TrEMBL record:
Biological source species: Paenibacillus aceris
Residue intervals passing through the bilayer: 12-39, 267-287
The UniProt record lists the keyword Transmembrane: yes
Lineage summary: Bacteria, Bacillati, Bacillota, Bacilli, Bacillales
Record domain HTH araC/xylS-type: where: 641-740
PANTHER family in UniProt: ARAC-FAMILY TRANSCRIPTIONAL REGULATOR, HTH-TYPE TRANSCRIPTIONAL REGULATOR EXSA
Full protein name: AraC-like DNA-binding protein
Pfam families cross-referenced by the UniProt entry: HTH_18
Keywords per UniProt: DNA-binding, Membrane, Transcription, Transcription regulation, Transmembrane, Transmembrane helix
Amino acid sequence: MEWKLTLKRTTYMQWLISYMPVFFISMASLILIFFMILFKVSENESLNANKLYARQVQQTIDTTFRLSEQLVVQEVISDDKLKQFLTSAEMPGTLEMFEMSEKIRQLIFTTPLVDSIYLYRENDRSVFGANGMFTLDSFGDRDFIQDALDGKVIGWSDARKFKEFQGNSSAEKDVVSLAREVPGFTGHHALIMINVQVSAIPTWLKSTIDSDISEFLLKDKLHNDLLASRKEPSLEKSPSVAIKSSYTGWVLLSQLRNKHLFQQLSLFTYLWFSLAVLAMMLGMFWMRHSIRRNYRPIQSILDQIHEGYGQRPGNELDFIQSALHTYAEESRHYQSQKSETLFQRRQAAVNDLLSGDRVLQGSLWQAEKQALECPIEEETLSVVVVEIDRYHEFKAEYNPKDQSLLKFVITNVAKECAEQNGFPTLSAWVGDHQLGILVFIESKHDAWEESIRGFCEQLRLWVESQLAFTISCAYGPEMAIEAVHLSYKSAQERLGYKMVLGNNRLLNMTEILAVSADTETLFYEDVRKVRKIVIDFRGGRGEWLPALTEVFSAIRARCPQREDIRSFMTYMQIQFTRDMMELPGDIQVYWKSHVLPRMMELIEQSELLGEFEGRWVQLLQAAETHIGQMKEHRHERELVSRIREYIAEHYMDYDLSLTTVSDHFHIPAKKLSRIFKEEYGEKFVDVVALTRMERAKELLEQSDEPVQEIANRVGYYHSISFIQAFKKLTGVTPGQFRLQIRQ
């Protein structure tokens, strides 16, 4: 024994040590590959962050320059004196010039980046700025103004030289400029010139952004560097990001400051990756060597098997494993098949007994019990039917697999509760939502009915507290085995009263007898009430709702069974549908597509009378409102059509107006105008004018009648009014229209 243990440990250690180098080499390779991937991801994220940051910088530049432009233009056109200077040729007075200069200086001071602002008017070719008023010929920046007038300057200019006074070259500045035509003015040109000093842009940008993250170059359309900074040559030759502004036309170039560090790390990573690949190849060679060495003992065993059996399978280890697996599977399959067969036989036997298809008694019943492995001595029994409440919600909430699991839980819990109350049972699901339970009763069990009620209440309370749904129960009278189907039928009849008495309860005969009445009376007394309800509903009278409430109260007082209630509701639905099919086609379509399917769904799925009543009333109220709106809309559409015909017949009347038409049709003018606009999307007066103009076009094209006579024939007393209306609708006068047609 000690020798076997030592041998086992020695073999284990040999295998462990032989594969250990492969493990370490593989792990080291995976770690290196992981860090390489991590580095590439970090590099890509850094480049993406730089790209987003560059876009933010570009948006900041565009927003600032656009804001400066909008602020200057808005202030100029909102200032009365500056606006008057641009729109008139008058010379402003000394005081006015001083106030205008102060206004421009204040505007320069409050507007970001702006170095100078001056205004130009073409009336007298005058220029006005913070330093006074000049003629265009004496102004130092006249060439730029002339280029703007000729359309050579679009948007912000490239970097250029600017001087306000001629001959003073020392006062020149590098600026970018915007020549903006004053909006809203007509006639001669009026321009607003805005200059931003180039040297101010990098100072402002440095105070706005964190330049330690990235390097930037800002190029105008002539590739001038507007930031006037010394950057690495690689930034201009191969930038990471190049973004062109749609507003200024300038291009922002950007790259990370640590780009060379990423390149060095990338080279180092590729070197280590090569070493990792080499290490993995060495590991594969070592693993192959170890496998061959460790396989020798197994080979020796297989050789002995070959000598003993005289044949060698294709794959010895798979053969051994397959044999063991086959044996285990056959054993499990036999046990499973036996259990499934017994379960299915019990299910079939219970269903046959409950349906009455098989009558078992005496020796036949004894043989069936032995076949079902059911050691039950009792000869009388009662049937308990358990029904899942709101089964349509149960199916919608759970998938088929969960439904089967929950039904299995209810079956097992029912068996345990019955055993606790001293009853052996056999059970089977007799429908999608009903569990039938055969409860066997001892011959000396005098209080069996009380015990069954206790069993049903125990099961009901357990489901209510442990599961997310509820059940209702009913049981039939004690019967012999050959009459068990009668007990099942009685239990089903008791469950039929659930629709009135409610869910989640035990339906016993005592409670049912106390509230139920003759169900035949239900149909004879309430059929005539249903007919009156349908007639009132169809006529749009509100009397149908109290009558319907009275019918439901009568049903609730009689406590009929579920199938009787559904039959009555189906009759009511048929009556409603038959009357609705006598109404116009659009109402029939609405009823068939929206109301009728919902009615059928309520009849099929509703389990409680109160719940059904509320939803039925809501459905009818919504349908009544919608049908009323459809009837009103149809009446208005017919009325508008008649009005259009009236206009076509009386368009030549001078007095044709909204008032005369409303008087003719006995409808208020405001209402007529509203429904006319809603139906055709046009005003009443526009339709009258369009009708008259169409007739006028025909007369102008087909006759040589004078315009005055044509105006009278289409309802205009004065030709001037006719000509104005004709030109408004067609864009030309009647005479011009006739000339165009004949040419």
